[in-house]
Amino acid sequence: MFWPLLSLLAAILVTLLVGWVVDQVLQRVAAAHPDAPVWALLRRCRIPLQLVVLSALLLAARPVRRIFHTNDSATHHVVLLVLFASLGWLSVRVLAAALEAVFSRYETITEDASRVRRVGTQLNMARRVGSALIWVVTGGAMLLTFDAMRTVGASLLASAGIVGIVAGIAAQSTLGNLFAGLQIAFGDTVRIGDTVVLEGQQGIVEELTLSYLVLRLWDDRRLVVPVSYFVSKPFENWTRRAPDLLAWVLLQLDHRTPVPELRTELKHFLDSTELWDGRDWSLNVTDTTPSTIVVRATMTAADPDDAAALKFAVREHLVAHLRDRHPEALPRVKTD
Predict the structure, then answer these.
(1) What tens digit of pLDDT does each residue of 175-218 get?
(2) CA-derived radius of gyration, the chain
(3) Do 228 and 279 belong together in one domain?
(4) Which residues contact 250 (CB under 8 A, 6 or more apart)?
(5) Does 280 lie in the same domain as 225?
(6) Alpha-carbon separation of residue 91 from 59, 98, 103, 106, 127 (angstroms)
């Protein structure tokens, strides 16, 4: 009775010593590296680590059998279950500490509150999914230690594999976006800061990831588009090669419009504005109808923002000029 009791006390003392030593080491490392919070967070793993060490020592020495006069196989089985449960608990604690350290580090280097909330939600979901998988595997392993429950344990592990397969099938779109993001990144079809047009929406690429792309529209709305869109459908990239653009304005005018004078007025206005880059311009009649003519004014600008502003300014100036000087040039709708 003396030696089994001594073995049990020795196992407990070794367990306490290991927990204390690991805690002191982590405390010193955390103090030496305050910018790495993972070391301080790993101190939470002390209790499950001690349970793992104690159950492993009991499996090696097995002093409990003689102390409590229990069956050796039953004692071995109980300690084995404690070992599996402790390993699962330790794995969950390590995973939580690692993800929390990543989030804490991200908080210190990111000032955007929306991004911090997004990353926090993603990491929290990853922690929950990872913890669930760990406990499923742990529960299946524990059930496999029972002769009568091996079928149930094997089914549980098999179901976990089936769930993984189903999840993989369900994540096909996500994987497609992932590979599409790699294709966009290395194909250089879209870059941050490019002006693109898709589905009639014009915007500037504000954020580009391996799964989605964020466009900032003219009214500061954000359009979130999966990156697979850019490898499966056509879109316009106005700034892929160079930011300069050709802007144009269409006007529906009366047949009595003095086109040469309007052309001269356009040139005078372009010379007076900084929005025009001076490269090219023109004003031509592109079409006619029984009641109107279609006049197109074109002019170049240094970038999409200047091009948009120049279009608005030219349209406003030409209409105002015709209204003040040649009101007969503006089309009118006749009613009885």
Answers:
(1) 666 666 666 666 667 777 788 888 888 888 887 776 778 888 87
(2) 36
(3) no
(4) 286, 294, 295, 296
(5) no
(6) 20, 11, 18, 23, 11
Q: Is 188 left (phi over 0), alpha (psi -120 to 50) or beta?
A: left
Contact 38, 53 (CB under 8 A): no
- Looking at mean pLDDT, say which of 30-34, 131-135, 145-149 comes out highest: 131-135
Q: Enumerate the β-bridge partners of residue 196.
A: 203, 237
Q: Return the structure tokens found at 334.
A: 């006749």
Kindly state the DSSP code that residue 242 receives in the 8-state scheme.
Answer: -
**Residue 84 reports pLDDT greater than 80:** yes
What percent of the chain clears pLDDT 70, i.e. is strictly above it?
Answer: 73
Does residue 20 sit in the same domain as residue 160?
yes
Structure tokens belonging to residue 82: 């404690």
CATH number of the domain enclosing 233 = 2.30.30.60
In this structure, are 85 and 158 located in the same domain? Answer: yes
Residue type, 68: F
In a domain, 334, yes or no: no
Average pLDDT score over residue span 36-53: 77
| Residue bearing tokens 């003396």 | 2
Residue 105: CB partners within 8 Å, gap ≥ 6? 36, 37
Q: Which one of 170, 193, 225 terminates a domain?
A: 170
- Range(s) of the domain holding residue 71: 2-170
- What average pLDDT is seen over the chain? 77
**Final residue of a domain: which of 113, 148, 170?**
170
- Asked whether 210 and 185 are in contact (CB, 8 A), the reply is yes
Rounded distance, CA 203 to CA 224, Å?
11
Kindly give the pairing relationship between strand 293-301 and strand 245-253.
antiparallel
In a domain, 20, yes or no: yes
Residue with tokens 């003392």: 13
User: At residue 116, does pLDDT exceed 60?
Assistant: yes
Judge whether 335 lies within some domain.
no
Does residue 89 form part of some domain? yes
Instruction: Specify the higher pLDDT residue, 336 or 301.
Output: 301
